[in-house]
Design brief:
This protein is an alpha/beta fold. The chain has a single domain, classed as Alpha-Beta Barrel (TIM Barrel), CATH 3.20.20. Helices cover 56% and strands 11% of the residues. An eight-stranded parallel beta sheet has the order 1-8-7-6-5-4-3-2. Strand 4, helix 9 and strand 5 form a beta-alpha-beta unit. The longest helix is centred in the C-terminal third of the chain and has 36 residues. The radius of gyration is 20 Å and the shape is globular. The N and C termini lie far apart (51 Å). The model has no long low-confidence stretch (mean pLDDT 96).
Length: 370
């Protein structure tokens, strides 16, 4: 049994945090699915590396440019092709899992992170254009994103909520999801091919390694090295404890009775940024039921080679709580740190998106000139 199959037996799904045209056309994605990969996530940085950093798309860019398409239209055509084909390859996973897995995620324009109505309109347009039941639209967990999540779930759109770093933000996301389900249960889906309350799906993408990157800098200044490399996992374990409480409470029960699915926690940013840490740290220590880990290629290879499979997420909960309390005692404001990380994350996704648009424009002009 492969390690990915072992994780599945423990209730955790592995999604692949990468997409590129050659991944699909070479048959590599099909091989990954056979090995146990059960979904795909993308973001502007991934698409920027794929499209700007390869010639996989040059023929399509030239063809689209010759037909008079704008830079935005070219980008969407390329992204829709990749997302659609990947979703088709994962469709069997979606069907056989009863809609639990088999999803491919596409992000709304990162420049809409602070615009609620525009995010809703964009997400619905992307979902309806792709027209596949196993597509998730990624929406950031910003103040403007939270009401958009409620409206989109209420319309029957699958949502991958991204850029969650902190506990309070996570609880707000779960609340937005449940509010959306309550709305959906009343009205039914209102978008083309929207899902009913017992079919719509969502994950809450909780970012991990960047929390250690930020906090460990402060601990270094305080000469508290023994606390380094522990805050991100502790923070994640507390979020998982909240997940279990939220999706077993009295508000959840009526929705559960109607067949509603829990909003699984998805661990994102799970590659170890610090070379002193084990390269599978944020996979090994966050294994538990009703979770997803979206893993980039190098980390997945490492985990398949020497990762450890055991239910770790529910272990040492009190130690996790003490770790977070120690940060407060040292004067480290975790709420402020995680809010700053979210703010930085919005900018970090906007930059590669802009670079991608510029790269497409340059390639279009060069290929047309040629």
């Amino acid at each position: 049994m492969s390690k990915l199959a072992e994780l599945e037996k423990l209730g955790q799904s592995v999604w692949f945090d990468f997409i590129r045209r050659s991944l699909i056309t070479s048959g590599e994605l099909e091989e990954l699915i056979e090995k146990g990969v059960r979904g795909i996530t993308s973001n502007p940085a991934i698409f920027e590396k794929a499209i700007a950093g390869s010639n996989d798309y040059d023929a399509d860019i030239k063809k689209l440019a010759k037909s008079g398409k704008s830079v935005d239209e070219i980008y969407e055509a390329l992204a829709f092709e990749d997302i659609g084909r990947a979703a088709d390859l994962l469709r069997n996973t979606y069907e056989t899992s009863g809609g639990i897995d088999g999803y491919v995620s596409l992000e709304v324009n990162p420049h809409l992170a602070d615009k609620t109505e525009e995010t809703i309109d964009e997400a619905i347009r992307l979902y309806e254009t792709l027209d596949r039941p196993n597509v998730m639209i990624k929406v950031p967990a910003t103040a403007a994103g939270l009401p958009a999540i409620t409206q989109l779930i209420g319309a029957g759109v699958n949502v991958n909520v991204t850029l969650i770093f902190g506990l309070e933000n996570y609880k707000a996301v779960a609340d937005a999801y449940i509010a959306g389900l309550e709305k959906l249960a009343e009205t039914g889906p209102t978008v083309a091919a929207g899902h009913p309350v017992d079919k719509v799906a969502s994950v809450a993408s909780f970012f991990v390694s960047r929390v250690d990157s930020a906090i460990d800098k402060e601990l270094e200044k305080m000469d508290q090295k023994e606390l380094q490399g522990k805050s991100a996992i502790a923070n994640s374990k507390l979020a998982y404890a909240e997940f279990k409480q939220i999706f077993s409470g009295s508000r959840w029960q009526p929705l559960k009775d109607q067949g509603a699915r829990v909003q699984r926690v998805l661990w994102a940013s799970t590659s170890a940024k610090n070379p002193d840490f084990a390269d599978t740290l944020y996979v090994d220590e966050l294994i538990g039921p009703n979770t997803v880990n979206t893993i980039p290629p190098a980390t997945l290879d490492s985990f398949m080679d020497h990762g450890r499979v055991a239910e770790t997420l529910t272990k040492d909960g009190e130690a996790a709580r003490r770790q977070i309390e120690k940060l407060a005692e040292l004067g480290i404001d975790l709420l402020a740190v995680t809010q700053q990380l979210q703010d930085d994350g919005v900018v970090a996704f906007a930059k590669p998106f802009d670079a991608l648009m510029q790269s497409i424009a340059e390639k279009r002009d060069r290929l047309l000139g040629a």
